[in-house]
Amino acid sequence: MADEGITMRWRPLVLAFSLLSSLWAGDRIRVAVDEWTTLNPLLASQDTDYEALDLLFDRLVTIDAKGDFISELLESWTILKGGREVVLKLRSGMRWHDGRAIEAEDVVFTWKALRLPRVRQIADTAGGVTSLDSLTAEGPLTVRIRLKRPRGTLLSDLYNFIPVPRHLYQVGNKPKDSPVNFLPVGSGPYRMVGTGTTKHIVLERWAGYRGAHPGTAASFELWDASGETNILPAFEQQRLHYVALRGLQGGLRYYLVRKGAQGAGLLRAVSIPMASFGAYFLNCDPKRSLLGDLVLRQAIGELVPWQDLARARRFLPSRIATSFWPPESWAYDATPRPLPQVDRALSILEAAGWKPGPDGVRVDAKGRRLSLVLYESAPTLKQGPASLLATQAKRVGMQIEIRAIAFPVLTEKASNHEGDIWSFGWSLSLDPDVDSPLFTREGYLTKANVSSYLNPEMDRLFDAGRHTLDPEVRKGIYLKISDLIYKDKPIIPTNYTQARVLMHRRLQGVMFNRLGTTYGFWPGRRGWTLEGS
């Protein structure tokens, strides 16, 4: 009886909380996101990771909607000694979600953690952050960066720097197994509700946020909607307010909504160019793949199915890739390139001594068959980039076996250099130096260079670009890099991506930055609101 009496006294308060929670959940913005890998900034390796991290954590600096760098965790940065020293001043009064003060030592700790080999083998996306020469805490809110040479990438390096609390993010021998990976304690305007997974998280606006760029929505729910066969009911029931569409089925939905055949008055359809592309990553290691031979990579470059991709553009708008960096990047190379031609692939193979075998598959003088393995994630199209390439290859006596695997397994295969070709997408960053690990010896050591491509000239050019301050001179360096990528073909971009999204009529404030994403800038998703009912 006593226990029941206590329960009765608390019941009105419980009921009030229940009603408040119901109202609060009704203002929750629900976003469909492809499965992510972690909520730990130290280990983030996919775009989907940052879609949540940008709500949970503040960067040292961020960018505004125009692409200009602005302060976030930093109050200021001062460049001294001709760019060889930089003094960072943190905002005072900033705290982690657990109430601990954010200090300069947290910044230094994060820099050291990002440099650990066991971290860089998982995620090497912090770019130039890891190659800063030294960081030292000078008091609770001041950090001094010392550089042997000035860096043209400095603000981009600071942008890619997401500090974490040193008292919780110590890196063990098995970083992927750390509980903090899905129990993040961040510095941003939103914090976790409960424990996250790779498929579902709930975030609430944090009342303790004192930063420069707060959020406007009360709550976010991010979930993997890949299992949803029909997303229209999810919008009607407000289980969904925003989704990026993928593949042929996604393109069809976008088309029907755009034409008013579906979701009239409920949904908006938006398309915008993105700084990303689909690509074939080729294994350049001669000990692991036939594609260690440049001649064979050049032959594959002539097999890119550009005509099929062009036909698809009539229904699913995209752009044929002509440069590693797309038009949204200041490093874009507009040099005209000849379109791939199967006849040229035949001539290349014949000249290199690859002759047709009894079963139609070519062999060389050593008796090696021209047979390759291509890995792709589970395809959404019957005639996707992998199958289209295999069809083209068959025409010239090249056999390509396609193996469809889950995307995390695909990226692991690529990191371990298992296979000959890997077909997946890549998103570009603000500064092209961030992509340097894909092509350099340093990236090879950390497994970020999935193609095993080694060229001293490429290392020299990236090093020069990193330490050049003049913007026009820097651009000239990256044009040379782009030309080298085109000639040596460790990566063959196929088409630049278009973002096609559906939004609920209640969702307001959606903007895209110049990279074509809704996150990674201010206001980004922090400016989203739900209006009306």
Tell me what you see in this structure.
The chain is α+β, with helices and mostly antiparallel strands. It has two domains: 31-219 and 506-530, Periplasmic binding protein-like II (D-Maltodextrin-Binding Protein, domain 2), CATH 3.40.190.10; 275-496, Dipeptide-binding Protein, Domain 3 (Dipeptide-binding Protein, domain 3), CATH 3.10.105. The chain is built from 15 helices and 21 strands. The chain has helices at residues 2-26, 47-56, 104-114, 117-120, 154-159, 232-236, 247-258, 294-301, 306-312, 342-351, 385-395, 407-415, 441-445, 456-466, 471-488, and strands at residues 28-32, 61-63, 69-71, 74-80, 85-90, 134-137, 142-146, 190-192, 200-205, 219-223, 242-244, 267-282, 319-320, 355-356, 362-363, 371-377, 399-405, 421-427, 491-504, 507-508, 529-530. The strands form five sheets. Strands 1, 8, 9, 10, 11, 12, 13, 16, 17, 18 and 19 form an eleven-stranded mixed sheet that branches. It has a four-stranded antiparallel sheet with strand order 4-5-7-6, with helices on one face. Helix 14 (456-466) packs antiparallel against helix 15 (471-488). The longest helix has 25 residues, at 2-26. The chain is globular.
